[in-house]
């Protein structure tokens, strides 16, 4: 059974760095083809893909956010970490992590964590 | 403005059929598989369709997907009130070295 769960601060100040952790179970991020992606959703708005990290440490980022994002993994802890620099109120939203394998892209999602950016 | 274009809303009566379109370009839908996601109110998205027309285990065959050229379509038959949700299409975009995932703007389905 694959599960993912996001954790991190619920409130950050403008210009601060956001660090979110995705802790997962039921799969290994060292298995060929597996990846964990990050997706966010501002309140009442559409999904926005942020990036993904693969089993081989290959990483892909949203072109519009690439300069602010870093995704890393700790295979031994079954965790993936997202950092986003220079947070702004427009970055307020629910942040999800999701599982990817060779057949299904984002077939499993975490419950999401709401992050508010405010001074 | 999303890279993939969906109608903001669609509606249909219970037991009827509805289709949701997703329009893209040669760099995304035209050259990659399409996935569809259902997001019920207050919940995380759920994968409905992958590889254009395949359903994950547990997804009823009332849900179907198709693709033609640079557009994709999600079909839902036998509509139920429980199908009221936001639906998103998604696909890879860009060249291999700059590949990134894109979502559509979402379509709100109302079953009236």
Question: How would you describe the overall organization of this protein?
Answer:
Chain A has 119 residues and is mostly beta strands. Chain A has strands spanning 3-7, 11-12, 18-25, 35-41, 48-54, 59-61, 69-74, 79-84, 93-100, 105-109, 113-117. In chain A, the strands form 2 sheets. In chain A, strands 2, 4, 5, 6, 9, 10 and 11 form a 7-stranded mixed β-sheet that branches. In chain A, strands 1-3-8-7 form a 4-stranded antiparallel β-sheet, with no helix packed on it. Chain A starts with a strand and ends with a strand. Chain B has 112 residues and is mostly beta strands. Chain B has strands at 9-12, 18-23, 34-39, 46-49, 63-68, 71-76, 85-93, 100-103, 107-111. In chain B, the strands form 2 sheets. In chain B, strands 1, 3, 4, 7, 8 and 9 form a 6-stranded mixed β-sheet that branches. In chain B, strands 2-6-5 form a 3-stranded antiparallel β-sheet, with no helix packed on it. Chain B starts with 8 loop residues before the first strand and ends with a strand. Classes of the chains: A mainly beta (119), B mainly beta (112).
What is the topology?
The complex is a heterodimer of chains A (119) and B (112).
Chain A: E1 3-7, E2 11-12, E3 18-25, E4 35-41, E5 48-54, E6 59-61, E7 69-74, E8 79-84, E9 93-100, E10 105-109, E11 113-117
Parallel strand pairs in A: 2-11
Antiparallel strand pairs in A: 1-3, 3-8, 4-5, 4-9, 5-6, 7-8, 9-10, 9-11
Chain B: E1 9-12, E2 18-23, E3 34-39, E4 46-49, E5 63-68, E6 71-76, E7 85-93, E8 100-103, E9 107-111
Parallel strand pairs in B: 1-9
Antiparallel strand pairs in B: 2-6, 3-4, 3-7, 5-6, 7-8, 7-9
Assembly context of the chains = heterodimer
- Total helices of chain B: the number is 0
Total number of strands of chain B: 9
| H/E topology pattern of chain A | EEEEEEEEEEE
Rg of chain B over CA atoms, rounded to whole Å, is: 13 Å
Taking all Cα atoms into account, the compactness measure Rg of chain A is 14 Å
Structural class of chain B: mainly beta
Helical fraction of chain B: under 10%
Order of helices and strands of chain B: EEEEEEEEE
What's the pLDDT, averaged over the residues of chain A? 97
**What do the pLDDT scores of chain B average to?**
96
Beta content of chain A comes to over 45%
* Strand runs of chain A, count: 11
Terminal-residue CA separation of chain A: 40 Å
What is the terminal separation of chain B in angstroms?
28 Å
